[in-house]
Design a protein that fits this description.
Blueprint (H helix, E strand, L loop, with lengths): L25 H5 L2 E2 L2 E2 L3 E5 L3 H7 L5 E4 L3 H4 L11 H13 L5 E5 L9 H15 L3 E3 L7 H9 L4 E6 L5 H4 L9 H17 L3 E5 L3 H10 L4 E4 L7 E4 L1 H4 L16 H17 L15
Parallel strand pairs: 3-4, 3-10, 4-5, 5-6, 6-7, 7-8, 8-9, 9-10
Antiparallel strand pairs: 1-2
Length: 290
């Protein structure tokens, strides 16, 4: 048998193996909004593992490796304890499991706030370790200089305004933002500052709907709502929330399935069959050959 291998000439040096789908790019995401209008809303969900990415990829424009993995995967009380190493490991898995969606990795608390130089060091580490296309960071106008700094150095940035979970200790909880005129004005100003700094998209989380609509109309880049408005240019949810993996979820989550119930019932059936010795049966065991 020949051991000679030939290069697949239909692929390129940049993508040396065949792909079932062509991956979207950050510029493609950015240009989905033209003259203030997005024809087809952007679909974004969180992903933390390769298999999850495989299942979500063909349906999503963006897969977000969110620092929500701290709570969803690791059982932490908030996103604050999440580390760069955690984000890098899960980000790499999601990139390996996807072919179509733009993969964005959250920058965890403490990895970018000190200076724009610190932010570049952290962001470049994440991009190199994962192969992701972009990073996401929380904060408004105070982060605009950092967003511009990263963007000018080849790292696309997704912004995040409104309810910013990494600031939970300052905010005092996860209540909706923008209920006062002053807070609403700040949120709109934050989004404009990020847009002007070059953010290719902005997540609007947990704000009263009129403010989400105003932000969406005020910025040139796409907005992605979570607890915001259907009038945003796209939507994102934590995948485990919308699948029904948890009993308690935020008000803005719609449960599309009861995966927790399905898992519970399935495991109960398995446990019963193990205890009554009906599993494994002949179909799941190796028998002597005749």
């Amino acid at each position: 048998m020949s051991t000679t291998f030939q290069l697949e000439t239909t692929t390129s040096r940049a993508n040396p193996t065949p792909r079932p789908m062509k991956r979207l790019t950050v510029p493609k995401i950015r240009t989905r909004k033209t003259d203030g209008v997005t024809g087809e809303p952007l679909v974004m969900l969180t992903a933390y593992t390769a298999r999850q990415a495989q299942l979500l990829d063909q349906h999503c424009d963006i897969l977000l490796v969110g620092d929500s993995l701290g709570q969803v995967i690791y059982g932490l009380p908030s996103t604050v304890p999440v580390t760069l190493e955690m984000m890098a490991a899960h980000g790499a898995a999601v990139v390996r499991g996807s072919y179509h969606a733009v993969v964005v990795v959250d920058m965890p608390f403490g990895s970018y706030e000190a200076s724009k130089e610190q932010a570049f060091e952290s962001a470049s580490y994440l991009v190199k370790q994962t192969g992701a296309a972009a990073v996401k960071l929380e904060g408004g106008a105070p982060m605009a200089e950092t967003v511009a700094f990263l963007n000018q150095r080849g790292i696309p940035v997704m912004g995040h305004v409104g309810l910013t979970p990494q600031a939970v200790n300052v905010l005092g909880g996860y209540a909706a933002r923008g209920r006062t005129d002053a807070e609403a004005e700040t949120i709109v100003g934050d989004a404009k500052a990020l847009d002007d700094a070059g953010a290719f998209a902005i997540v609007i989380e947990g704000v009263v709907e009129p403010i989400a609509i105003e932000v969406t109309r005020s910025v040139a880049c796409p907005t992605i709502g979570i607890g915001a408005s259907s009038q945003c240019d796209g939507q994102v949810l934590v995948t485990e929330d919308m699948l029904g993996m948890f009993e308690r979820v935020p008000k803005f989550v719609k449960k599309y399935e009861d995966i927790a119930g399905i898992i519970g019932n399935t495991v109960a059936s398995y446990a019963e069959e193990v205890r009554n010795r009906s599993f494994p049966s002949a179909d799941q065991t190796y028998q002597p050959k005749d």
